[in-house]
Each structure stands twice: as structure tokens, then as C-alpha cells.
Design a protein that fits this description.
heterodimer, A: about 220 residues, mainly alpha, two-stranded antiparallel ribbon, 2 strands, globular, B: about 800 residues, two-stranded antiparallel sheet, 31 helices, about 0% strand
């Protein structure tokens, strides 16, 4: 038990280097869950996550699992994919889902929003080229409608086309007939989703109700 | 110099529209004021039947002299009640009309205030005429006729998502907030009433229970007033749903408290047992109301599944079931408002999937119309009832009430927000709290509840009514008028006017699934998890029962997409066809720009057109002709009970089959068919296009060249545009109908499904389907039925 707590405090302290504001309580709960998923090992692999029964009904299951193993989500400026991840990386991915507090300033909100949008963008941009092409977007919509049978597949193409057209029209309104819109860049992505207020919507209530969190930097050292 | 005498110069008569409107208003008010007393004076309605009988008796008596046959007789009694009702409704509607003709006025003063003033005027006129003011805000009339349309409108169009997300907060404000208000106001009033031993006033008679009853009547935020005021200030969705939701859900609390105190006010004491029973009663009232509403909602949804052959009465089911839900809840003293809300909210997704587009429009406009008239009438009646009295003005009571209402509201909101913010993710800021507190308007419900009080049990009834009216006036006039400038001053976030885009919808769904997945990975059963479970249950079992046909399997994203396309098609046709949509996308981007690298699209130039082999031509002609025939057949069968056939409803699967056929056809034809670009259209073209499917064709006198067409994918649009075709047909236009049924002509720009590319294409290249259609081919007689225009244009 002692080793666990020490390890947690180590993790928390190094998480302070990143922009983290999860309370020790939450970290403990997540660690428990991590142990559960990994069968008490140090790392989890994709198989561990795929075994979760509740995820079976989720149409975008594969993308979610891939996001955990995506190096881009670790804020280390690397690309590629892990085979296995440790608790630190697990927490890092989870940190994308923290909610803003009353004390979050306007710039912090902006940064949070960018971070969350980046996470979504990475989920769509599977080939790492910095843009979401029509094919990738089609794949996204297809996955979303994958549980709906044949109707879904046919309409997915039309919907993806329409969506892409909308992005292009709003961001680059005047294109000559010969111009070609390669794909949705991150700026365009931000632009079309700015109405959704990501920082308020994309969050999970971690396992306790107390959302008055402490910044790691102040509590541990 | 304009002449003084004789005819006025045009400038004199050319009063501006607002001034004319004002004049009209004055005339109407006088009219109303004069006719009603006339009606009241003619004869008492209670016994006019017997009177008539007597008169007839005397007329046929042997000693009556023979009068000449009355050529013109006046008998007002028979039609008095419907006549007066219609007159009131007419007045209300004309008032509404009038206010909007005077733009400056309606931007400063909210409509509700103006209407109350009009009511005061009318009431004053009636009193001046010496007649008895009709008891217009009679509680039965109010609760059974005037209130339900407004609530149904609110419930049917309730934005479910924000409502559910903030349900906890709303319930806290509605239940705890109202309780706090009621007890605080009642208690303090009782205390104040007791503290004047020096000059014995009426107030000493006031006991605790009547005070508490008064407190519970006055403390409820009124949905009608909130709707009326908040609609004009366009505040952001969160605040709107918080205040509005609170006003709807506090009905249960009000009902329970009202009945509890009214019941025991006579007895004089309320024991602990009664208190406990009251709490239980609250749950019964609230949950019972919701249950009753939900049951009727499911019934309505189930009924709408079978209405595909009787589309005309579809809206009726929605209205009648909802009203029945309200009445059924009222039978058991359950919360009728919650029943209505539950009914509307439950039935809406299923009913909308089942009913036709026209029924949907009908429901929407009827609800808006009724609720609008109702609201107007309520405010006017409030004014009239104020003039009527009876009043018993007591300075202390009234001023203390007004002050207490404000103070209680502020304290309640601040206190509750402090607690709520601990549980909320998106916290409520001070600005939000201020708006919530300031938006707690009281309205006609409070007055009607007060009106219902029995004079014997409550000797202070008149005083109560006066105080209630004063509070209503204060909140509606002062708070209603100042909330708009305050919102501007505080720079509160306003409602985002942006349309829901397909990208946002995709990502909303994506986010839902993502968050559910993350919750599952965390092992945390949060509300995303349960929402997902509910959705899956809904999809698996409920939708199958309640939605007819193929639509039951349609995922939400696709439904949204089709709705969006339909809307755009309608806009396109309304804007005159070929003209580009002015609003949404002023851009030249088309599918062409999006498609991944393909061989460059063939520029639409004049080129040598290959001859069509005879067989192909025949095939094309047959297809086109058969489509046209179908249209004409549809046209001929029309009677009052079946609307012109709505192709969109003929089945979703038909649509898909058609699409598949078109794809195959396209593959066959795209090899050797192209169309040259069209020069801009003549005016007759434009007119023709208005009535017909805009993407279908344009009529042009062309050369003898072989008709060539490139068929492209049917967009899911086209059947819907035929929908509109039908409407235009009704307008009596003699336009050629080109039933398109998915056969679309486009410049060779690659396969493209959706609607939007067409807009760009429209402007650039027009198609000449007409050429093929007018080509008589072997059997020319079939074209005879076609309206002349095609033939004429065909002139070579």
C-alpha cells in the first residue's frame, strides 16, 4: 500500500509539470481502475481495454481505444502509437476530460478548449498528416452510423460530403472551380466547432463530487 | 405654398404607417368598449330562452294583432356569447397587429405591458358606459381554455437537451426556491400584520394560514409572463431554460401548497401529520402529473403510427391527446402543467417521425397561433379585471408584499446557487444569478388562484387580490421593461443565432459516444452512461412500437441530415430557383472542390455530340415519360380527404430503391452523354422554374441537336421538391410539371449526392431536360396533356 501512495505522489508531482488539476482523490480512484484493467500489472495494452464489456456497444470503440495509445495525446510532440501504456500516460489522456472550474481564467479556458479540440482532431486524423481528408471524415461518419445497418452506410457518404462542403464553404468561401480543398486543418476544425463550447461539454465527472480541485503544484512538491 | 382650403395635399393624408396603426388601435378600443356593454344590456342570457318561449306564446295568442312580417329583425341574444368571445379574440389579435406596426413602441415597452394597458382602457370604457364588466378572468375560463395552449406550445417545443442537462438545477429552484419564497413571504407578512397594536387595522384579522396561502400563491414564477418577456430579450439558452423550466415545474409545488393551506385554513391549524401528508402529496402530484402526461404522449405517438392514410387529421390527435392529458390530470388535482409538458415532450420525437411535413407545419403554426392569442387575451383580461376590482387597498400589506417578493427571490436565488454550484460543472456566475432573480415574474396564474378563493373562508380575499395585482403589475411593468436594458448593460451572453450545422451535429453525437466510452473505461457510471442506455433502449424497443415503417430504424444523424436538406430545398424554391441561396453559404465552393484528386472535370463546352443509339434514346424517353405519367395520375385524384400525394411519405425504402436505380442508370449513361452549357434564362424560364423542380430543367428553344443528358444521382431532395410542386399547383399556376423523381441533370461534375452542390451548379450550368421531354418520339399523343408551354418552346 505504501508503495502505491508514494508512486501516486510521484505521478502527481510529475503531472504538475503538465497542466493538470485533478485531485489526489481522483488520482487514487483512477489508479484503482487502472489496476483493475491491467490485472495488477504495470501497463495496459489494447486487449485490456477491448475486454471492457460496456464498450462493446459503442460505435466508435476502436477510435477511443486508439486515442489512448496515440503518442500525439501525450503532449510530448511525438507521433506514432504505443503498444502499451503505463498509468502516467493513462492519466495524461484522462486529463483531457477535466472540467473548467470557477477559477479558470479566460486564457486557461481557451487553452483547455484548444487542447480538447486537438484531442478530437487527433482522433479523426488517423494518418497524422495534420489534415482531415474527405476519406477520413467519411470513415468517421461511417463509424458513427455503423450500428445502423445499410441505411447508415449509404447516408454516411452523403453526410460526410455535405459536412466537408460546409467546412470548406465557411472557411474558404471563394474557391474557383479548379481549386481543391485538401482537408480540414486544425484551424478550420476549431472554427466550425467554436459554437459547441468544448471546454464545458467535453468532460467527465470523476468519481467524486467534489470538483474543487487543487493544482498539483501547490499541494505536493 | 400648399392650399389651406379645399382638398388636403397628399402630405396631409399621407400619415405614416405607425400613426395609422395608432389610430386603428384607438378605434378598436372604443369599438370594443361600446359593443360589450351593448351586448350585456340587451337581455340577460339566463332566461332568454324562456322569454323567447313566452314571446312566441303571446304571438300566437288569439288576441294579438297581426303585425307585418319583419323584414329585418335584430336578435342578439342567440349569438351573444360566441359573438363576444370572437370580439375579444379579434381585439386581441388586432392589438398584436397594431403593436408591431409601431416599431419604436414595441422595442421600448414589452408587449405584455401594452396589452395590460389596453385591457385597462377597455375595462375603463366599459365601466364608464355604466355596465358590468364581464368576469373575464374567471378561473375556469383561464385554467381550462387560456392556459393550456401556452403550456402545450412550451412543452412541445421544449429543448430537451438543455432541459435535461440542467434538470437538477431547475428542480432545485422550482421546488426549494418556491417553498422558501412561500414560507418566507407568508411568515413575514403574518409577523408584520401582528405588529401594529396601536391602531387596530384590518390586518389583525389575518391569521397565519391565510398568510401562508397568500405566500404560496404569490411566490410562484409565472410561465406566461416569463415567456412573454424573455422571448423579446433573446437571452442565452442556459438562463432561458433555467427560468422557464423553473416556472413550469413549480406548478406542482403551488398546487400542493394551495390545496393544503386552503383545506386547512378553515380549521385553523396544520399538524405535523398534515405536513408529512403534504410532502407525500407533492410527490404524488408531480410524478402523477408526469405519468399521466407520459401515458397520453405514448398513446398519441402510437396513434400517429397509423395515420398514413388520413393525414388531414394528424394535428388533431396531437392537440386532443394533450388537452386530454391536461384535463385528466386536473380531475385528480395533479399538476396539469407538468402533464402537458410531459405529454408534449414524450410524444414529439415519435410523432414527428410519423407525420407528414405538412402536418408538422400545421401543428407548429396552430400551436404558435393559439398560444399567441391566449397570451394576448390573458394580459388584456388582466387589465380588465384590474378595473373590475373588487379592491381593498391596504398600504402596509401591499408595499410589504412587493418588497418581500423581491427580497425573498434574491435571497432564495443566491442561497440556492451557492449550494447548486457545488454540484454543477458549468457554474452560475453572479450575472446569471442576477438575471435569474430578476426574471422571476409573477403573472395571471397567481391572480386566478387568488380569484378562486372562497370569500367566506377568506375574508381578506379582496386585499389579497389587490396585492396580487399590484405585484403582477410591478413585476411585469418595472421588471419587464427594465430587463432588456439591464441585459445589455451587464453584457449577458445572448442567444446564438447560428443554425445547427451538420458538423456540429456529427460532433455532438461523436462526443456523446466518446464520453460514454471514457466513462466506461473509467468504470464510472455517470449520466452519459445512463443516457446511452436509455437511447439504446429507446432505439431497440420503443421506436419499433411507436414509429411506422422504415423510419423507426433511422438514426438521429440521418434524420437530422434529411431535415436539413428539406429545409434547404424549400429555401431554394422559395428564393426563386436558380438564384443562389442568399443566406447560408455565399460561397462558390461546390463538391468539385472537395472531391479528392480526380481527372479534371470536363469543362462544359460545345462539342460534337455523339449520336445516341436508337435503343438508348428509347430507354431514356420511356423512363422520363413514365415519370411524367405518374405525376399526372397523382394530380387527378384529389378529394377533401386525401391531400395530393406526398411522394416523400411513400416510403423511405422507395427512396433508396430509386437512388440505387439512378446510380445504375448513371453508370450506364455517363459514358456518352454530356450537355452543353446554357445561356441565362429568359423571364418565362424563371417563372417556369418557380413551379417546377429547380434542378430539373429549363426551357429553351434549342437547336435540333440530339438531346443528350447526363443523369446524376438522385438527391434525396427531389421527392420533397415535388412536395412543393404540389403546393404551387394548388396556387393555380399552369406550369408544366416535370416530375423528377430523382432524375437529375447536371453538368459532369462527378457523383454528388447532397443538395448544396446544386446551388453552385445552378448558377453556372442549366440543364435541358425539356428537350428530351418535348421530343415527341413515336407516340406523340402522350404529350398532348402537357401544358402548352413546352410545345411552344419547342418551336424550331
Amino acid at each position: 500500500m505504501r508503495t502505491n501512495y508514494r508512486w501516486i505522489s510521484d505521478v502527481s508531482s510529475c503531472c504538475c509539470l503538465c497542466f493538470f488539476s485533478v485531485s489526489p482523490e481522483q488520482i487514487k480512484n483512477l489508479h484503482k481502475r487502472f489496476q483493475q484493467l491491467s490485472d495488477n500489472e504495470e501497463t495496459i495494452s489494447r486487449e485490456n481495454l477491448e475486454k471492457i464489456p460496456a464498450l462493446a456497444n459503442n460505435p466508435i470503440r476502436k477510435q477511443i481505444i486508439d486515442a489512448f495509445f496515440d503518442k500525439r495525446n501525450q503532449h510530448q510532440n511525438e507521433v506514432g502509437a504505443f503498444q502499451e501504456i503505463g498509468f502516467e500516460q493513462f492519466l495524461m489522456v484522462m486529463s483531457h476530460f477535466r472540467p473548467p472550474t470557477l477559477k479558470t481564467t479566460e486564457e486557461e479556458r481557451e487553452a483547455m478548449r484548444k487542447e480538447k479540440l486537438r484531442f478530437l482532431f487527433n482522433m479523426h486524423d488517423t494518418d497524422n498528416d495534420g489534415t482531415i481528408t474527405l476519406e477520413e471524415y467519411r470513415k468517421v461518419v461511417e463509424e458513427l452510423l455503423s450500428k445502423s445497418g445499410a441505411i447508415g452506410l449509404e447516408a454516411a457518404k452523403a453526410i460526410a460530403d455535405a459536412a466537408m462542403l460546409e467546412v470548406a464553404s465557411t472557411n474558404v468561401p471563394h474557391m474557383a472551380p479548379d481549386d481543391f480543398y485538401e482537408g480540414i486543418t486544425f484551424e478550420h476544425f476549431e472554427q466550425i466547432l467554436k459554437g459547441l463550447e468544448m471546454e464545458s461539454r467535453m468532460h467527465i465527472r470523476f468519481l467524486d463530487v467534489d470538483t474543487m480541485t487543487m493544482r498539483c503544484g501547490k499541494s505536493k512538491s | 405654398m400648399p392650399s389651406r382650403t379645399g382638398s388636403h395635399s397628399p402630405a396631409g393624408f399621407g400619415k405614416s404607417l405607425p400613426e395609422r396603426g395608432l389610430l386603428l388601435l384607438m378605434v378598436l378600443v372604443f369599438l370594443e368598449g361600446s359593443v360589450l356593454p351593448l351586448g350585456a344590456a340587451s337581455s340577460p342570457d339566463t332566461s332568454h330562452q324562456t322569454n323567447l318561449g313566452d314571446h312566441q306564446g303571446t304571438h300566437t295568442g288569439p288576441n294579438s294583432t297581426k303585425k307585418p312580417f319583419p323584414v329585418l329583425a335584430v336578435e342578439y341574444d342567440r349569438v351573444q356569447i360566441p359573438f363576444e368571445i370572437s370580439l375579444w379574440v379579434l381585439l386581441a389579435s388586432l392589438m398584436k397587429l397594431g403593436f408591431h406596426l409601431i416599431p419604436r413602441l414595441s422595442s421600448i415597452v414589452p408587449e405584455s405591458c401594452l396589452l395590460i394597458v389596453v385591457g385597462l382602457l377597455v375595462g375603463g370604457l366599459i365601466k364608464l358606459a355604466g355596465e358590468e364588466v364581464p368576469p373575464v378572468l374567471d378561473s375556469r375560463l383561464f385554467f381550462l381554455c387560456l392556459l393550456p395552449p401556452i403550456i402545450l406550445d412550451a412543452g412541445y417545443f421544449l429543448p430537451i437537451r438543455p432541459f435535461m442537462e440542467n434538470l437538477g438545477t431547475i428542480l432545485m429552484f422550482a421546488v426549494v426556491g418556491t417553498l422558501w419564497n412561500a414560507f418566507f413571504i407568508g411568515g413575514v407578512l403574518y409577523g408584520v400584520a401582528q405588529i401594529q397594536p396601536a391602531n387596530p387595522s384590518d390586518l389583525h384579522q389575518l391569521e397565519l394560514l391565510p398568510c401562508l396561502l397568500f405566500g404560496s400563491i404569490i411566490s410562484a414564477v409565472d410561465p406566461v409572463a416569463v415567456l412573454a418577456v424573455f422571448e423579446e430579450i433573446h437571452i442565452n439558452e442556459l438562463l432561458h431554460i433555467l427560468v422557464f423550466g423553473e416556472s413550469l415545474l413549480n406548478d406542482a409545488v403551488t398546487v400542493v401548497l394551495y390545496h393544503l393551506f386552503e383545506e386547512y385554513a378553515g380549521v385553523g391549524t396544520v399538524t405535523l401529520l398534515d405536513g408529512v401528508l403534504g410532502v407525500i402529496s407533492f410527490f404524488v402530484v408531480a410524478l402523477g402529473g408526469v405519468l399521466v402526461g407520459a401515458i397520453y404522449g405514448i398513446l398519441a405517438a402510437f396513434t400517429s403510427r397509423f395515420t398514413s392514410h388520413t393525414r388531414v387529421i394528424e394535428p388533431l390527435f396531437v392537440f386532443v391527446y394533450s388537452y386530454m392529458a391536461y384535463l385528466s390530470a386536473e380531475i385528480f388535482h395533479l399538476s396539469g402543467i407538468m402533464a402537458l409538458i410531459a405529454c408534449g415532450a414524450v410524444m414529439r420525437p415519435y410523432v414527428e417521425a410519423n407525420i407528414s411535413h405538412k402536418s408538422h407545419t400545421t401543428i407548429k403554426y396552430f400551436l404558435k397561433m393559439w398560444s399567441s392569442v391566449s397570451e394576448t387575451l390573458i394580459f388584456i383580461f388582466l387589465g380588465v379585471a384590474t378595473v373590475d376590482g373588487p379592491h381593498a387597498w391596504n398600504w402596509t400589506f401591499v408595499t410589504v408584499t412587493v418588497i418581500l417578493c423581491l427580497v425573498a427571490r434574491v435571497i432564495g436565488v443566491v442561497g440556492l446557487t451557492y449550494v447548486i454550484n457545488k454540484f454543477r460543472i458549468v457554474k452560475l456566475t453572479t450575472k446569471d444569478q442576477f438575471i435569474i432573480a430578476y426574471g422571476g415574474l409573477r403573472g395571471a396564474i397567481a391572480f386566478s388562484l387568488g380569484f378562486l378563493l372562497n370569500q367566506d373562508h377568506f375574508p381578506m380575499r379582496k386585499m389579497f387580490l389587490t396585492a396580487i395585482i399590484t405585484v403582477i403589475f410591478f413585476t411585469v411593468f418595472v421588471q419587464g421593461m427594465t430587463i432588456k436594458p439591464l441585459v445589455e448593460l451587464l453584457a449577458v451572453k445572448k442567444k446564438q443565432e447560428a443554425k445547427r450545422s451538420i458538423n456540429e451535429e456529427i460532433h455532438t453525437q461523436f462526443l456523446d459516444h466518446l464520453l460514454t466510452g471514457i466513462e466506461d473505461i473509467c468504470g464510472h457510471y455517470g449520466h452519459h452512461h445512463w443516457k446511452d442506455k436509455l437511447n439504446r433502449f429507446n432505439k431497440k424497443y420503443v421506436k419499433k412500437c411507436l414509429i411506422a415503417g422504415e423510419r423507426s430504424k433511422e438514426p438521429q444523424l440521418i434524420a437530422f441530415y434529411h431535415k436539413m436538406e428539406m429545409k434547404q430545398a424549400i429555401e431554394l424554391v422559395e428564393s426563386g430557383g436558380g438564384v443562389k441561396l442568399p443566406s447560408a453559404m455565399p460561397s462558390t465552393v461546390s463538391m468539385q472542390n472537395i472531391q479528392p484528386k480526380k481527372p479534371p472535370p470536363a469543362k462544359p463546352v460545345e462539342r460534337v455530340l455523339p449520336q445516341l443509339p436508337k435503343g438508348r434514346e428509347e430507354e431514356i424517353r420511356k423512363i422520363l415519360r413514365s415519370n411524367l405519367q405518374r405525376t399526372r395520375q397523382r394530380l387527378r385524384s384529389y378529394n377533401r380527404h386525401t391531400l395530393v400525394a406526398d411522394p416523400y411519405e411513400d416510403g423511405f425504402s422507395d427512396l433508396l430503391i430509386k437512388k440505387q436505380r439512378m446510380v445504375e442508370l448513371e453508370k450506364k449513361m455517363s459514358n456518352y452523354l454530356t450537355v452543353p452549357a446554357a445561356p441565362p434564362d429568359s423571364p418565362t424560364m424563371c417563372r417556369a422554374r418557380l413551379a417546377s423542380d429547380p434542378q430539373a430543367y429549363s426551357m429553351k428553344p434549342v437547336s435540333d441537336s440530339v438531346p443528350t443528358i447526363q443523369v446524376d444521382l438522385a438527391s434525396p431532395q427531389s421527392p420533397d421538391s415535388v412536395n412543393l410542386l404540389d403546393e404551387f399547383r394548388h396556387a393555380g399556376q399552369q406550369q408544366p410539371e416535370v416530375e423528377d423523381q430523382g432524375l437529375m441533370m447536371k453538368p459532369p461534375s462527378g457523383p454528388s449526392g447532397p443538395n448544396k452542390p446544386r446551388e453552385a451548379d445552378e448558377a453556372r450550368d442549366q440543364q435541358k431536360l425539356m428537350r428530351c421531354l418535348s421530343d415527341p418520339g413515336p407516340s406523340a399523343d402522350e404529350d398532348e396533356d402537357e401544358p402548352e408551354k413546352i410545345k411552344k418552346k419547342k418551336s424550331h
